Amino acid sequence: MDNTKIKLFIIILIPAVIVAIAAALRIVVFIPDKKIKEKQVHKIYRLLDGMPVRTEGLVNLKPWAIMIENHYDSRPASGLDKASLVFEAETEGKITRFMAIFDGASDIKKIGPVRSVRPYFILWAEKWDPVFLHSGGSPDALARLKDSLMYNINEISSDGIFFWRDKSRSRPHNLYTSSSLINEAIAAKEIDGTGAYKPWLFKDDIVLEKRPQTAEDIKIDFTEPGYEVFYKYDRDKNSYLRYLDEDKHLTAEGNEIWLKNVILLKTTAKIIDSEGRLDVALKGQGSAEIFLDGKKIEGVWKNIDGDLKFYDDSGEMVFNRGNIWIEVIFG
To answer: What is the DSSP string of 104-152?
Structure first.
């Protein structure tokens, strides 16, 4: 074979080899892609708020419930944006207070200001059997805590070592705790870190195409000026941004508060003493407005034997995975 024929053969052969190699590479790449699509990923979700977790050991940790004040002079609070569940209800003086419930694996450097507890917060908290942190309480609340099965960490006792005061703020609006101090308390008291409660039901967000273009805003006018609450729906996030006293509700760290679910729990309350303390109807059932996925659902709450649940027309309410804020409205 002369040189001309050899060169011609090589010229013809090289493209053929390149095509063959490229085809082979496409096959190699294609096969794993197909296998990945066919493989089903098993996700693990924690019970408290339905959020995904890395290991089974994080599914059912004992939560923490912490009383956090909302007095005008105490703002801004720390840690509320990290809570899985928050109850907000009026206390005496028509000033609202928060009970924030956190997952037991939370990592939060500052939570508070921590304040005293009232009986109705205890009854709501008992469903989740949390470690309960507070600074004192009304006589009825302290009496109920003595009979409660919850572990009770009271700053006005020898348990004060699990709290600290921020000297840059004035008393009584400067008491705080943290996840590290709470874990120290749990270890010191040899508290079992496993949760023991019946969880609510959770689901994934609906896809963007099924979310409404516009959604009803949520407005709550508590009795006292300066405590007005407003929630605005964001379609892309499928979440509600919280406003307080006409401005975005920011934490002391500058974080916005976004909620996956907002509930208006309607009940009745009456003043029972000269201090203005309240007796709140907690048992039985009442009406509720439930907001998620940009929709408003007319529902009911039922509290049977301490097991608080919410229902719509089809049965027990299924919430979006993530945090829930419950606004308690006295009628």
So the answer is: TT---S-BB-B--B-HHHHHHHGGG--EEEES-B-HHHHHHHHH-SSEE
pTM: 0.88
Phi and psi of 132, rounded to 5°? -105, 120
Judge whether 292 and 320 are in contact, CB under 8 Å.
yes
- 17 and 85 fall within a common domain: no
Same domain, 177 and 212: no
**What's the pLDDT at 284?**
96
Q: What torsion, rounded to 10 degrees, do the Cα atoms 130, 133, 137, 139 define? A: 40
- 206, 138 contact by CB (below 8 A): no
All residue ranges of the chain with pLDDT < 70 are 1-41
Question: Residue 192 is encoded by which pair of tokens?
Answer: 């079992």
Cα–Cα distances in angstroms (integers) from residue 289 to residues 145, 169, 326, in the given order = 30, 37, 10
With respect to residue 46, please indicate whether it lies within any of the assigned structural domains.
no
Strands 131-134 and 151-154: parallel
Domain residues for 114? 52-188
Tell me the pLDDT tens digit for each residue of 33-68: 544 454 566 799 999 999 999 999 999 999 999 999
C-alpha separations of 231 from 52, 88, 197, 239, 258 in Å = 25, 14, 29, 9, 9
Res 206: pLDDT? 98
Query: 208 and 173, same structural domain?
Result: no
Which H/E stretch holds residue 22?
helix 3-38
Contacts of 152 (CB under 8 A, 6+ apart): 132, 134, 145
